[in-house]
Write a structure and sequence with these properties.
Blueprint (H helix, E strand, L loop, with lengths): L4 H4 L2 E3 L2 E3 L3 E3 L15 H9 L5 E8 L16 H16 L3 E7 L17 E2 L24 E2 L4 H16 L4 E6 L4 H6 L14 H4 L1 H13 L7 E5 L12 H17 L4 E5 L16 H5 L7 E5 L4 H10 L4 E4 L9 H7 L33
Parallel strand pairs: 3-4, 3-12, 4-5, 5-8, 6-7, 8-9, 9-10, 10-11, 11-12
Antiparallel strand pairs: 1-2
Helix pairs in contact: 2-3, 4-7
Length: 374
């Protein structure tokens, strides 16, 4: 255990004691078949990766709303709560902590993917470019003109209930997914929010939705603000997101400062990654250099294709308190242990099974069948 010693150090988030500073980052794996309920394969997947001090679930939807992944998990039904309770028990048995990432995709959903055909919601009826709904006839992209969410408090209430459900399922906390072009970030950014009411206009008004979602989650977990975090990706790019640098600096600086005042558990910052920005829609900024100094109270978690050595240096320098690793965890269920023991990573992962098994194969294909290091 002589490698990456900074990542090995224990840390606390509020009353939660983490055994190390490695986090499993959120990744959609699309294996919750049958009512979006996590089953035995999902339990095994997270338990295998509980060498991490902290686990973030994949995006977990707070209401059925037509996202492109038919088997992404939910946290809005009793069966889903029961399914997740098996996951949290397995993770806790391995000594890790686990947060549920609460997810509403907003304008990047499609009504044809919703069992009830409910409209796709957005801040201002402005569609995102891109997308491909492979299970919808014609494989359309994102809607050009999604519906306007007339009363944002309706969705804020769903975040509160989802947080309550997560605690019932045994989660240690919840994360508001306000990154990668999903609903909270759609409200925050000026290009996707042109409202003129209290939810739009100024940076302060546009930040209202993610702030209120966080406050709702705090109520939902029972009032302990340290059991709530948020994920942000200021550089944009993914899902047609990104404001000019001066605009994003103002809106994200205000949001981060206000969130830090709420004494939440952590703020997770995703650095800008060019390969997630094929259309050059985002803004390649130094997310850490620009926004890390604003965080005075919350734990700082960084993610974005970090190597173990790079993550260790980020902790050593004070840029990060914890580092999240996502895709490298797919083929390396013992990633933390490999980091600490200086063992090489397995890199021959099959991309075709990232979001589901190969045709005719069990759910475990490309999911729980990767081996630990010898």
């Amino acid at each position: 255990m002589s490698h990456n010693k900074n990542l090995q150090k224990p840390i606390k988030i509020g009353s939660l004691e983490l055994k190390n500073r490695v986090a499993l980052g959120s990744m959609t794996r699309n294996r919750a078949v049958g009512g979006r309920v996590p089953g035995p394969d999902v339990v095994e997947y997270y338990a295998q990766r509980a060498g991490a001090g902290l686990i973030f679930t994949e995006g977990t939807i707070i209401v059925e709303h037509g996202l492109e992944w038919p088997h992404a998990p939910g946290i809005f039904s009793e069966d889903q709560i029961k399914g997740w309770s098996e996951v949290t028990k397995a993770v806790h048995a391995k000594g890790a902590k686990i947060f549920s990432q609460l997810w509403h995709v907003g304008r990047v959903a499609h009504p044809a993917m919703d069992p009830e055909g409910k409209p796709t919601l957005s801040p201002s009826g402005i569609g995102a470019k891109g997308g491909k709904f492979r299970l919808v006839e014609g494989e359309p992209g994102y809607l050009e003109k999604p519906s306007v969410l007339e009363n944002p408090q309706d969705v804020i209430a769903l975040f509160e209930q989802a947080a309550k459900n997560a605690i019932e399922a045994g989660f240690d906390g919840v994360e508001i997914h306000s990154a990668n072009g999903y609903l909270p970030s759609q409200f925050l950014e000026a290009h996707s929010n042109t409202r003129t009411d209290e939810w739009g206009g100024s940076a302060q008004n546009r930040a209202r939705f993610p702030i209120e979602a966080v406050k709702a989650a705090i109520r939902g977990v029972g009032g302990d603000s340290k059991r709530v975090g948020i994920k942000l990706s200021p550089g944009g790019g993914y899902n047609d997101m990104g404001d000019p640098e001066d605009v994003l600096t103002e809106e994200y600086s205000y949001l981060i400062t206000e969130l830090d005042k709420l004494d939440i558990g952590y703020i997770q910052l995703s650095r800008y990654l060019p390969h997630f920005d094929a259309e050059k829609r985002g803004t390649p900024i130094d997310v850490v250099g620009k926004f890390r100094p604003l965080i005075k109270n919350a734990t700082v978690i960084l993610n974005g294709m970090y190597s173990g050595d790079e993550g260790d240096k980020a902790v050593e320098s004070g840029s990060a308190d914890i580092v999240a690793f996502a895709s490298s965890y797919i083929g390396n269920p013992d990633l933390a242990e490999r980091f600490f023991e200086g063992k090489p990573l397995y890199t021959e992962m099959h991309y075709g099974t990232w979001y589901g098994p190969s045709e005719g194969k069990p759910l475990s294909d490309g999911y729980t069948d990767y081996k630990t290091a010898a």
